[in-house]
């Protein structure tokens, strides 16, 4: 399962990229707005930090098909081949996805709340769809179950479209989808850190270090090896 950072804060991205096996960064207009900075500069900084080989998701903002297509062409031109254009899974967006597919521009159907939205995005040629797990939960429906249903639709219809699970509030939501074999998730730093935030893990790591220090008076294996 691919793992993305759902954030545009440079310090946060740098820390996570340094520590974890991260495949890239996803952004949306609200995430960019939270930085309070020029989006063009922030996105370029993100591209510079993650390099050309990791994937950057950038959302088209224009409301009409023609505008979405123009946004997507510009995003692709400026940020390179490992960039995926997020497009809202609404009628104007599906039309834009079909046009962009023919031009070889990679897209992700976003703002997905229902399985049939995901079906339409996949059929229109999106490479990814991003269902909003926690937002679906907060509407009183089942976010994880909705994503599993989307995966079943793709499998049973033979759609070559990956799910990018999004909008998570806890690692259990991610765990269930990882177990089910979905293609990708994008998570906040807090949720990614929570994969290994556990008192038992910290205690076990500390015990090993303490025992080794008691035995050798040293803090590393290289200090005792000849
Ligand atoms: C990613 O594609 C989504 O834009 C994002 O995960 C939404 O998350 P939120 O519900 O935390 O805003």
Mean pLDDT over the residues: 97
Q: Biggest sheet, strands in spatial order?
A: 1-2-3-4-5-6-7-8
Measured between the Cα atoms of the first and last residue, the distance is 41 Å
Rough shape? globular
Q: Per CATH, what is the topology of the largest domain?
A: TIM Barrel
Structural class: alpha/beta
| CATH architectural label of the largest domain | Alpha-Beta Barrel
Give Rg in angstroms. 20 Å
The count of domains is 2
* CATH superfamily grouping of the largest domain: Aldolase class I
- The level 1 CATH classification of the largest domain is Alpha Beta
Helix content: 40-55%
Number of strands: 8
What hetero molecules are bound to the protein chains?
erythose-4-phosphate
Spans of at least 5 consecutive residues with low confidence: none
The main sheet comes to: 8 strands, parallel, barrel
Q: Total helix count?
A: 11
- The portion of residues forming beta strands comes to 15-25%
The ordered string of helix (H) and strand (E) elements is: EHEHHEHEHEHEHHEHEHH
Please provide a written account of the structure:
The chain is α/β, with parallel strands linked by helices. It folds into 2 domains: 2-195, Aldolase class I (TIM Barrel, Alpha-Beta Barrel), CATH 3.20.20; 196-226. The chain has 11 helices and 8 strands. The protein has helices at residues 10-19, 29-35, 39-50, 65-79, 91-103, 115-123, 133-138, 143-157, 171-180, 189-194, 199-216; strands at 2-6, 24-26, 55-59, 83-88, 107-112, 128-131, 162-165, 184-187. It has an 8-stranded parallel barrel, surrounded by 7 helices. Strand 5 (107-112), helix 6 and strand 6 form a beta-alpha-beta unit. Helix 1 packs parallel to helix 3 and helix 8 packs parallel to helix 9 (171-180). The N and C termini lie far apart (41 Å). The mean pLDDT is 97. The structure holds erythose-4-phosphate. Erythose-4-phosphate is lined by residues 6, 26, 28, 110, 130, 132, 134-135, 166-167, 186.
């Amino acid at each position: 399962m691919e793992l993305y950072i759902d954030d545009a804060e440079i310090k946060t991205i740098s820390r996570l990229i340094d520590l974890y096996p991260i495949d890239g960064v996803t952004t949306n207009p609200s995430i960019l707005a939270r930085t309070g900075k020029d989006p063009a500069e922030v996105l370029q900084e993100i591209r510079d930090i993650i390099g050309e080989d990791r994937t950057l998701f950038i959302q088209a903002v224009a409301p009409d098909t023609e505008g979405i297509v123009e946004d997507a062409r510009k995003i692709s031109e400026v940020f390179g081949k490992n960039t995926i254009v997020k497009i809202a899974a609404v009628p104007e967006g599906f039309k834009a996805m079909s046009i962009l597919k023919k031009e070889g521009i990679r897209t992700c159907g976003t703002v997905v709340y229902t399985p049939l939205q995901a079906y339409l995005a996949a059929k229109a040629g999106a490479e990814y769809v991003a269902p909003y797990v926690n937002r679906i939960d907060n509407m009183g429906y089942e976010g994880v179950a909705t994503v599993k249903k989307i995966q079943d639709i793709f499998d049973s219809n033979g759609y070559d479209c990956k799910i990018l699970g999004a909008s998570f509030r806890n690692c259990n939501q991610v765990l269930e989808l990882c177990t089910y074999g979905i293609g990708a998730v994008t998570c906040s730093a807090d949720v990614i850190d929570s994969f290994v935030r556990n008192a038992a893990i910290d205690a076990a790591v500390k015990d090993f270090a303490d025992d080794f220090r008691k035995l050798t008076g040293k803090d590393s294996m290289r200090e005792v090896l000849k």
